[in-house]
């Protein structure tokens, strides 16, 4: 199975190395170098959820998700293909 060896090796990395890799990825996604990014230690026991959580995700936030944007783009492309095909078949038969 291609690609399974790197995945297996990656799963065996020590937790500190995985944390460092995640920090480097986060820095890259933030448009910074790993040296510029400072991560603060977080004590999970101190995290508190807001008292009033919304029952649903606001649509503005959902529309910003990359998977939603990609699905919307695919839908528009499929719709355009249907329109082109309809025009092509109607002009060919008419």
Annotation field: number of helices: 4
From the alpha-carbon coordinates, what is the Rg to the nearest angstrom?
23 Å
Number of domains: 2
Largest sheet data? none
Low-confidence parts lasting 5 or more residues at pLDDT below 50? none
Chain-wise SSE layout:
Elements (H helix, E strand, L loop, with lengths): L3 H8 L3 H15 L29 H4 L3 H28 L1
Structure, explained:
The protein has 94 residues and is mainly alpha-helical. The chain has 2 domains: 31 residues, no CATH class; 40 residues. Helices cover 59% and strands 0% of the residues. The chain has 4 helices and no strands. The protein is elongated, with a radius of gyration of 23 Å. The termini are far apart. The mean pLDDT is 83.
In short:
The chain is mostly helical and 94 residues long.
Keywords:
single chain; 4 helices; 94 residues; 2 domains; mainly alpha
